[in-house]
Amino acid sequence: MAAQLADVLTKCRASLDHYARGGKKIGEAKTKASLIEPVIGALGWDTLNWNEVCREYRHEAGDNPVDYALLLNGRPELFIEAKGLARTSTTRSGPAGAGVWGRRRRGLGGTDRRRRVADLLP
Predict the structure, then answer these.
(1) Which residues contact 36 (CB under 8 A, 6 or more apart)?
(2) Which of 111, 118, 73 is nearest to 95 (CA)?
(3) Which CA distances in Å does 24 have to 18, 32, 37, 86, 122?
(4) Mind listing the pLDDT tens digit for each residue in 28-76?
(5) Does the pLDDT at position 14 exceed 70?
(6) 26: which strand partners?
């Protein structure tokens, strides 16, 4: 798994560098497909299994959805909010790409553990 993850992160970094050099922006859907989902898969999550990776997750019916909830034993434990490259999130502070946070602090919105995916790339 480590070799696969390293390969995926290298490819993601190359994609980010390509877009940054060209001053290009990519939308949220392409960010998810080309950056976020490959990393989730390389980390061992089955992106086709709804019991592991739940897209457009809502904690309660009236909540705004988060792009991904990663579930352990049927319980959402990690949340990912995606934005298009070179855009900023309107619901969370700081540059976007993907914000990642756990559910342990202040319910779903605990931002203390959030990390930008770009910060995790080699």
Answers:
(1) 67, 68, 80, 82, 98, 117
(2) 118
(3) 8, 16, 21, 8, 21
(4) 888 898 889 999 999 999 999 999 999 999 988 888 899 999 999 988 9
(5) yes
(6) 85
What are the sequence ranges of the domains in the chain? 2-120
The span from the CA of 32 to the CA of 52, in Å, is 17
Q: Which residues contact 44 (CB under 8 A, 6 or more apart)?
A: 1
List CB contacts of 45: < 8 A, sequence separation 6 or more.
52, 53, 70
Does 1 have pLDDT greater than 80? no
Q: In sequence order, what are the residues at sequence separation of 6 or more whose Cβ sits closer than 8 angstroms to the Cβ of residue 39?
A: 5, 8, 9, 12, 117
Give Cβ neighbours of residue 47 (< 8 Å, ≥ 6 apart): 37, 40, 41, 53
pTM higher than 0.85? no
What is the reported pLDDT for 63? 87
Read out DSSP for 3-17? HHHHHHHHHHHHHHH
